[in-house]
Amino acid sequence: MWARQGRGIIIGESAPEATKGPLAGREGSEVPERKKVTILEVQAKKERGEPLTVLTAYDYPTALLVDQAEIDIILVGDSLGMVVLGYETTLPVTMEEMLHHCKAVRRGARYALLVGDMPFMSYQASIAEAVHNAGRFLKEAGMDAVKLEGGAALAPTVAAIVAAGMPVMGHIGLMPQSVAKMGGYKVQGTTAASARRLLDDALALEEAGCFSIVLEGIPDRVAELITGRLRIPTIGIGAGARCDGQVLVLHDILGLFDRFTPRFAKRYANLAPTIRQAVEAYRDDVRAGRFPTAEHAFTISDAEFAALAEAAAAPEARRV
Questions:
Q1: N or C: which end of the chain has fewer CB atoms below 10 A?
Q2: Domains and CATH numbers, the chain
């Protein structure tokens, strides 16, 4: 492939500077330089009542775009197993696959807080293994924090990871890694007893040291109650509008996942037809001889080409 920048053959247009905000370039506007989002800033946003924005990204180009849009937290979710790798569930995703994608996201995002999702069986077998694998997300992949699924039973694991110096985002409610145990993707906390267990789970994770907790697939009033009881931020996905922040899967909001769109997701664009039309237009141009044209080609001077033709015609240049 051709190099795309620096000393490469093809040099594209420079990307907009990530340090510039939406008002950059407007006369008389003063745009403060963007700063890296930290755990302290995430907590401060809850205290100020400012909603946190969270979105997934799985590679360099999507991370770059999401970061330029000034999203607070980028989650490299194990959802990549379904929306990027084509698995039926998130369960087959491996540590190596997660680290591979986390590294790519790290190269694209400079300012968002980066959270790596610990895949199934990377933290359940033992606390020692969980600490080791969490460390790989920070040491090898450049993540700022890790996320894991589970309630009070996982509190000792969370405490050990935090004690080792690594921030942890919790995740309770509908937990995709436990889909077999839950009997499918079902809303959780719909009875007083099950909702109370969710509250207990959230309090246990906060006590263990989580800096935030994802609430997935639970009734909105239950999520609001939990949010009000916690000192740390809650991030909702299918948990109503009263959480401290919201997270969605990038492919869901862009219309890039072919199987289904969850009820709780809002589609902000439908890029699949646009991409397909662009690919079809390319195919048609190649087949019709409309691409490439002279503007897409490189040239050689007439004198040099004449010298080449003469050399190629010489007897010693012929193949035996």
A1: C
A2: 39-248 (3.20.20.60), 275-317 (no CATH)
